[in-house]
Predict the structure.
Amino acid sequence: MNKLRLKSPAKLNLFLKVNKKRPDGYHDLTTLFERIDLCDDITLTLNKNGTIGISCSHPDVPSDSRNLVYKTAKILKDSLAVKSGVNIKIIKRVPVAAGLGGGSSNAATVLLGLNRLWRLKLSLKKMVEIAQKIGSDVPFFLYDASWAIGTERGDRIKKLSLPVKLWHVLVVAELKVYTSEIFGALNLKLTKPSTDVNILRCALKKNDLPRISHLLLNDLETAIVQSHPNLLKIKEELENLGAVGVSFSGSGPAVFGLVESRQKAENFKKILKKRYSRVFVVRTY
Ligand code: C5P
């Protein structure tokens, strides 16, 4: 085997409770992740000259050491003294710096892929340890799970086995939001008391859309809207169209509406496309 073609999916956070700031500058949080079918395509091709090459046509994706995918390959190569190299081609569909975990997912996908291509025989536990060094959202994407709860930095994952699949319409404003800035602007005293994430988990288990919508939470919302007030308008538009529930994903700017069916999601998309260029119909994956 010298070539692998892989899907690298995005995520939504249906629940994101920030519990406290930690001495290391990160925040302890409780989040509920949903994997969605908006995916990048990644091709890994073995090379014998020992180099790590990245190619991606998207202008906002660097192909050097700033790229999480490069970092992942480099950590594996150096720590395990791998002689082979790899050429990594990324076809980007997931908006960059949008709160959808695109870069983190790419890193996890490459970690899983290189484990096979370079025959590293790393356990999931070992891959999670490596993923935690790359970013807080990376471990979630290592699990073969549509749903999971993340605690600590969001990097301690418990898979959920929920049979439900949800439809969403997703709007991503044409701006990049930096997670560190949003966490930096967060005032924990202003966050609302929230329900336990397990209540949402039960609502998901019952596929109770009104209840799920009522329980959507993102503690970063105030900080996101303070930095980018126009984003509130997108939220309101989705609500006015009739989405059952609306929330930001991660640190934004992605806003998703929960809708009852594909048909409704497509109808909303048609309307929203007149004003926004990045509108997607997505489903649990
Ligand atoms: O882990 P990652 O590199 O994706 O995090 C980006 C930034 O988001 C961190 O530098 C930190 O400022 C913030 N962050 C945080 N608490 C978390 C996750 C991220 O404060 N649990």
Notes: The longest helix spans residues 102-117.
